[in-house]
Design goal:
mainly beta; Methylamine Dehydrogenase, Chain H; 4-stranded antiparallel sheet
């Protein structure tokens, strides 16, 4: 996944790594990494407004939001009303902080927004 600053984010073996793609030369420069403790996300998106990465872990029903520089994170539960069957799908837009989630065999796609009460929870 690419961020708006030319950074490339890759997950391999439970490790999220940030690379600089705008540097000189033919090799990518590693800018940092974040240990996901072996977990592999089912989907991920980059939020251009907040410069954050959101990863979805369907089995544990968790959303992990990490800062662009991979230094801070929020771990939140997926709201109970979100039901997904089939392949996990996730998207966002540049218009707001919404994250859209669903499943390839689900009849509903859900829009999630951060709660405004400061709790860090998502509302559907």
């Amino acid at each position: 996944m690419f961020g708006r600053h030319g950074d490339l984010y890759l997950v391999n073996a439970g490790q999220l790594t940030r690379f600089d793609t705008l540097g000189d030369g033919e090799r990518l420069t590693v800018l940092g990494s974040f240990d996901l403790k072996g977990a592999m996300p089912d989907a991920m998106v980059y939020d251009n407004q907040s410069d954050e990465i959101t990863l979805l872990f369907a089995k544990s029903r968790r959303l992990l939001t990490i800062s662009r520089d991979l230094t801070t994170m929020r771990d939140q539960a997926l709201p109970a009303e979100v039901k997904m069957t089939g392949e996990v799908l996730m998207a966002n837009t540049s218009l707001g902080r919404s994250v859209w989630v669903g499943g390839s065999q689900s009849p509903t796609f859900y829009e999630l927004n951060p709660m405004t009460d400061g709790s860090g929870r998502w509302q559907t």
